[in-house]
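Tokens for chain A. Residues wanted.
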């Protein structure tokens, strides 16, 4: 397994921010990273195949992603860490909690899912076809409609455009494999084995992974709690202060090691 690129910031209890399908750690945005780094030792990795991590031609699975993220924490010697995973990052955090409990202290699953349903499959089939037939920029432009809430799209379009410009630089072949990766992900039959505290966060206007998918996670993970914020799928971009505050409050309520 090749090592992946990561950056670290701040001091305090360790938190790993695991981004979504695009996979580039800086997609969290510096405002979000700075909020966490003001209180926590914050580790921000690039997924395999994205950003400054090695770009292999194949081999993309959520299990491999989880192993790579766990290896970073073991390399740093800071675990167990609080894992904050957005969307695909939440899928990775689920597997880390199940298969790498030595590096997992708690999990926050933001706008994520336990298993694909027909809506999810259809959405990503269309998005995959856009990517492979029209290219990464068209894919990014279409994806933005699923990822930002309508109000935020209208009121903060320059930010949306910045996201599109970054996402439009992706490799189409790797991107298609990464879509296949999330369509194959289903840990719903194992989530009852998670033994760490879990918070599920979702935007009420999320049409990529709608609220019922987060409610399913809460039903399946023992003791999990749900926080619904006003916004779309990229809730951390739309409501950065509220996103940090609800997670910081959750972490503050955990027992000390």
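Reply:
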């Amino acid at each position: 397994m090749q090592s992946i690129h990561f950056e670290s910031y701040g001091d305090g209890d360790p938190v790993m921010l695991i981004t979504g399908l695009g996979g580039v750690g800086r997609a969290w945005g510096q405002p979000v990273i700075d909020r966490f780094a003001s209180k926590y030792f914050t580790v921000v990795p690039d997924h395999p195949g994205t950003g400054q991590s090695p770009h292999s031609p194949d081999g993309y699975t959520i299990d491999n992603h989880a192993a790579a993220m766990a290896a970073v924490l073991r390399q740093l010697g800071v675990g167990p860490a609080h894992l904050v995973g957005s969307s695909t990052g939440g899928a990775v955090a689920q597997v880390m909690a199940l298969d790498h409990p030595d590096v997992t202290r708690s999990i926050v699953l933001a706008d994520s899912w336990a298993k694909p349903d027909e809506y999810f499959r259809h959405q990503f089939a269309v998005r995959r076809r856009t990517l492979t037939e029209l290219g990464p920029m068209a894919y990014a432009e279409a994806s933005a409609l699923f990822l930002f809430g309508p109000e935020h799209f209208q009121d903060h379009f320059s930010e949306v455009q910045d996201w599109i410009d970054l996402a439009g630089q992706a490799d189409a072949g790797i991107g298609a494999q990464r879509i296949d990766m999330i369509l194959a992900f289903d840990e719903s039959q194992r989530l009852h084995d998670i033994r760490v505290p879990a918070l599920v966060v979702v935007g009420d206007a999320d049409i990529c992974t709608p609220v019922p998918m987060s409610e399913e996670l809460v039903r399946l993970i023992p003791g999990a709690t749900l926080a619904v914020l006003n916004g779309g799928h990229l809730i951390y971009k739309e409501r950065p202060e509220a996103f940090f505050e609800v997670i910081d409050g959750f972490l503050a309520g955990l027992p000390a090691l």
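Residues 6-116+187-252 form a domain with the Rossmann fold fold (CATH 3.40.50.1820). The longest strand covers residues 104-110.
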